[in-house]
Amino acid sequence: MNAIETNQLTRAFGSLVAVDDLTLAIPEGTVFGFLGPNGAGKTTTVRLLSALIAPTSGSAAVAGYRLGEQNEAIRQSVGILTETPGLYDRLSAWQNLMFFAELYDLTAKRAASQVERYLHLLDLWERRDDKVGGFSKGMRQKLALARALLHEPKIIFLDEPTSGLDPEAARVVREFIKELRAEGRTIFLTTHNLPEADELCDLIGVFRSRLLRLGTPAHLRIGMFGTGTQVRVVGDATHWIDTVRVLPFVHDAHAEDGVLSVSLDHPDEQNPVLVQALVNAGAQIRAVEPISHSLEEVYLELVENERQAAAVSR
Ligand SMILES: Nc1ncnc2c1ncn2[C@@H]1O[C@H](COP(=O)(O)OP(=O)(O)OP(=O)(O)O)[C@@H](O)[C@H]1O
């Protein structure tokens, strides 16, 4: 089943269309990375999907409930970690969570057991009676995460969950996200941290008012840049360019610093032929590796292409 489905979901603020015709399906148990530049409409999308604001047009189903018709059920099924978690500095960690548990309508007994569970899970139990005003940014973030989870939502929206955290605290949050996924929950992760998205996400949507691309990190890489093989050779790599360009499956090749970069579609089958051709021609090979592009390169290329296309159509 899909945790989230949208169909031509659109939200305008006056003449500004923040979310334009978004059609998307996110299967249950997925970590979905929602990437886009500042002002792309990501927070607006999260607010739409958690039934905090209404769409201008289009439809969506969240946790199987229809947006607009079953909003209360949607709110009960989702947990949200926003960029500015409103915690009460004068209350202790325990009191903060108990306060929010009551807002979620948990019984007093269940609230206490859930608060205890998440304080333990996020390693805040020893600090439960300390006022949150004295907490570090990492501790606050963990507390805000606990708050989003108290009612055991099936779908969790996380807006920049590791932003501003030191590497150790960020790692704790990332590991926690992996545990949530292992429990079968769906995570909708908004982030500008592309290596983090690459590490965590099963599916990625690149978004700038409209959905520019949707796919697994690997598919996005191949879709943007194709596949390729790097061959490191002894001596000047330009010497072997013609040797590989004549191979029928090679789309293109170039050489730099003793490395031949060869664009081809099926490395598993074609690398042995490529290597054989080079050896036959007299090349001495140091290493053969896949060409890998970072998600950051893919993202920047996509957003830049879209910016140029928008400029041309104006
Ligand atoms: N309540 C509102 N009234 C008017 N305009 C709004 C409102 N909420 C958002 N917008 C506009 O919609 C656009 C998208 O904003 P949104 O906050 O969704 O972007 P974002 O992708 O979350 O940005 P960031 O990465 O900077 O957090 C922006 O131009 C913003 O100014």
TrEMBL record:
Annotated ABC transporter domain residues: 4-233
Gene Ontology molecular-function annotations: ATP binding; ATP hydrolysis activity
Keywords: ATP-binding, Nucleotide-binding, Transport
The keyword DNA repair appears for this protein: no
SUPFAM superfamilies: P-loop containing nucleoside triphosphate hydrolases
Pfam families referenced in this protein's UniProt entry, alphabetically: ABC_tran, DrrA1-3_C
Family: Belongs to the ABC transporter superfamily.
Protein name per Swiss-Prot or TrEMBL: ABC transporter related protein
Source species: Ktedonobacter racemifer DSM 44963
